[in-house]
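Researcher: I'd like a candidate sequence for this fold, 207 residues long. If you have to choose between options at a position, lean toward the conservative one.
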């Protein structure tokens, strides 16, 4: 007579979210298997963990995908061509900042924080999806600046093109400020100041 396995004692989707929060808070290598097992249901054994997720690396990949499909979507406003480029950029910055301060999860951005978490060479490959997300955000910011130039709103020169680097650097820095408990209001004020860089690069109207 065939024996059936013990029914799973936890919600798998919820377990992935809890793992995502641990990886988000601590980074990949600093999150231990013991922490992951303890966070699932009322705690599970190593055999149950491997049966459900395969490995720590596989669970991390699921957690990253969960993050990219949810929290990371705040920067998709960068690609919204239905609104002016300036508005798209400001919306993405504000959305990102407010997400990073949401009390329902760890502070900061998992994508940005992965740069600062130490990771050995042998494990660096697990961070590739997060690096790709950072690249997409950089391209999105550049896209906004290029749209501004193309519409005639911004000057077409090298100084204007460098705006993309300034805005990307600011966005990445929000994570550090959030972890250091700088008030969200100060970040929002900083975003308003950053948008003045955009305004200072406006094209001079032709007489």
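Model: Candidate sequence:
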């Amino acid at each position: 007579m065939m024996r059936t396995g013990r029914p799973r004692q936890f919600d798998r989707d919820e377990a992935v979210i809890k793992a995502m929060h641990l990886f988000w808070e601590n980074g990949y290598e600093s999150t231990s298997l013991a922490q992951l097992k303890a966070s699932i249901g009322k705690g599970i054994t190593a055999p149950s963990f491997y049966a459900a997720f395969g490995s720590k690396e596989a669970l991390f990949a699921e957690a990253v995908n969960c993050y990219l499909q949810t929290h990371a979507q705040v920067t998709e406003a960068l690609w919204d061509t239905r609104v002016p480029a300036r508005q798209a950029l400001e919306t993405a910055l504000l959305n990102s900042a407010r997400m990073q301060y949401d009390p329902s999860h760890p502070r900061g951005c998992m994508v940005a924080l992965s740069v600062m978490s130490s990771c050995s060479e042998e494990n660096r490959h697990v961070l590739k999806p997060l690096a790709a997300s950072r690249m997409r955000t950089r391209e999105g910011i550049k896209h906004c600046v290029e749209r501004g130039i193309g519409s005639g709103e911004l000057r077409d020169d090298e100084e204007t093109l460098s705006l993309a680097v300034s805005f990307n650097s600011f966005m990445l820095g929000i994570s550090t400020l959030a972890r250091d408990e700088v008030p969200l209001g100060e970040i929002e004020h900083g975003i308003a100041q950053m948008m003045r860089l955009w305004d200072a690069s406006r094209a001079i109207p032709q007489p």
